[in-house]
Amino acid sequence: MPPVAVFDMLGTFFSFERVQQKFAQVFHLPPSLVTFWFTQSVRDFMAFSTAGAYVPLKQVLCSSLTRVLRMHGVEVESYTTLQIDQVLDQFSQLTCHPDAGDCVSALTARGWRVFALTNGSEDNTLSALERAGLIQDFYAVLSTDSISKAKPDPATYDLVKQHVDAGDDLWFVSAHAWDIVGARQAGFKTVFVTTVEKEYMDVHERQPTEVVDSLLAASQLMISGYQGSRRSAEP
Questions:
Q1: What is the DSSP letter of 193?
Q2: Which of 61, 97, 169, 217 has the CB geometry, 3.0–4.6 Å to 3, for a possible disulfide?
Q3: C-beta of residue 205 within 8 angstroms of C-beta of residue 91
Q4: Do 9 and 151 form a contact (C-beta atoms < 8 A)?
């Protein structure tokens, strides 16, 4: 069977640029605080899941925004619900990183099956891929909402394995170290993209298979690695 490339979506395949721009425009705070907001939300999202009290990430993001604003000295009451909703709505309008299209096209042109595995909602992910004109390139779009568990729970990576055969060449691409750890534990080869966290901490025992600085570089590396492994397997 053709090899499989699985992409995390939030921050890896999709950019937070629109959210950052609106956040800075409305609250007059550094756009980099969006990363802090997202990271805090993911932390709580994972904690709820681990505790057996799953809440979709979208709801956690909405609930945690005012907390983050208060943590940075913002008088939340001075902003209208409409202004806050304008920022939250940007998570429903995410765009892909500039090289995302070329990345996926390089894979599908060589017969790879491409999956999305996201902690975000299926609807928002499908809509973003449709706006980008890439939805036809994805074999499946899978959300952890479907099993009420957050990545990196092992069961979330099994969502992909339900669509592939045992022994298939499985690659997982993410810009988040915790996601790479989960995928490695689940048996995937992994590619860590340094666009968000910049470096992979050496404290993690499960190091990524490869480290790259862009999505396009990730696709090129996976293609090269797969072709090399096939040549090695030839008698």
A1: E
A2: 169
A3: no
A4: no
Q: Which two tokens stand for residue 68?
A: 């983050």
Cα 202 from Cα 188, distance rounded (Å): 19
The pair of structure tokens assigned to 33 is: 């605080």
Q: Which residues on neighbouring strands pair with residue 95, listed in sequence order? A: 15
pLDDT for the residue numbered 221: 95
Sign (positive/negative) of CA torsion 153, 2, 112, 192? positive
CA distances (Å), 223 to each of 113, 193, 217, in order? Answer: 12, 16, 10
Residue type, 60: V
How many percent of the chain have pLDDT more than 70? 96
Three-state SS for 173?
Answer: strand
Cα angle for residues 91, 140, 163 (degrees, 5° grid): 140
Give the span between the Cα atoms of 177 and 199, in whole angstroms.
Answer: 9
- Pairwise CA distance, residues 34 & 186, whole Å: 30
Tokens in use for 69? 């604003």
CA 95 to CA 101: how far, in whole Å?
Answer: 11
- What's the chain's length in residues? 235
Q: Are 14 and 97 in contact (CB under 8 A)?
A: yes
Residue-wise pLDDT tens digits, 173-196: 999 999 999 999 999 999 999 999
Provide the token pair at 90. Answer: 């940007």
